[in-house]
Design a protein that fits this description.
Elements: H1 3-11, E1 14-16, E2 30-36, E3 39-46, E4 49-56, E5 72-75, H2 82-95, E6 101-107, E7 113-117, E8 119-123, E9 128-131, E10 139-147, H3 157-163, E11 167-174, E12 182-189, E13 192-195, H4 201-207
Parallel strand pairs: 1-2, 10-11
Antiparallel strand pairs: 2-3, 3-4, 4-5, 6-7, 6-10, 8-9, 11-12, 12-13
Helix pairs in contact: 2-4
The protein binds zinc ion (ZN).
């Protein structure tokens, strides 16, 4: 085999899903294709997340002598702390009407979350270009946050292009002049985008502007 193919196949193997036994878990962060009786699935493992999604079903009803796979989402980092969304709201209001960004990272060794501001290269009311923050060894990106200034929260075609290769949540805060900003959240898993229909209520509560009377 061509050595480049051997390296590629080792880094992204295909697995025949056992029908009678259990599928051995992926021990380290990585990706693999699961060939199952009910379709072909992508499994992605990161220190903070395990996600399994069906990429496709079979076109014909032919007998595949393998086991079945269920889609799964396991948040190994636990709940994302709402107070960091509140911290990001403060950043977004300070940058208003320009856009800003931040990374919510999780440290796999300490299990602590924190918010890192991104290094902004260019920002205006309609776009943002930034440098990805340098992370220490056990830090992993969990939520990639950006703000939309005066515009509502949604995922633009630029956001789609930016998010295509990552495994993360993408989060947008819009209407940053409102006492409660608008929010959009989605899971990005190597080109699979899944909108989270209900952004957690405590995120809105944390982002609400404190009005001093
Ligand atoms: Zn955007």
């Amino acid at each position: 085999m061509h050595p480049a193919d051997a390296a590629l196949q080792q880094s992204f193997p295909s697995v025949m899903v056992p029908r009678f036994g259990a599928l051995p878990p992926l021990e380290r962060p990585g990706e693999r294709l699961l060939i199952a009786a009910n379709g072909v699935f992508l499994e992605i493992v990161r220190p903070w997340l395990r996600v399994v999604r069906r990429l496709g079903a079979f076109q014909y009803r032919t007998a595949i002598p393998y086991g079945e796979v269920e889609e799964a989402t396991e948040m190994r980092c636990g709940r994302i702390p709402a107070d960091l969304i509140g911290e990001f709201a403060t950043m977004a209001r300070a940058a208003y009407p320009k856009e800003t960004g931040g990374w919510l990272v999780w440290n796999a060794a300490t299990a602590a979350f924190r918010l890192l501001p991104v290094q902004i290269l260019e920002h205006s009311g309609g776009h943002l270009k930034y440098e990805r923050p340098a992370l220490s060894q056990d830090d992993v990106l969990v939520v990639d946050c950006h703000s939309h200034g005066r515009h509502p929260a949604f995922f633009s075609s630029t956001d789609d292009a930016d998010d295509r290769h990552d495994v993360k949540f993408a989060f947008v805060m819009g209407n940053c002049d409102a006492s409660t900003p608008s929010m959009a959240l989605r899971l990005c898993a190597k080109g699979i985008f899944e909108n989270v229909e209900k952004v957690p209520a405590d995120w809105y509560a944390a982002a609400r502007e404190e009005v001093l009377v």
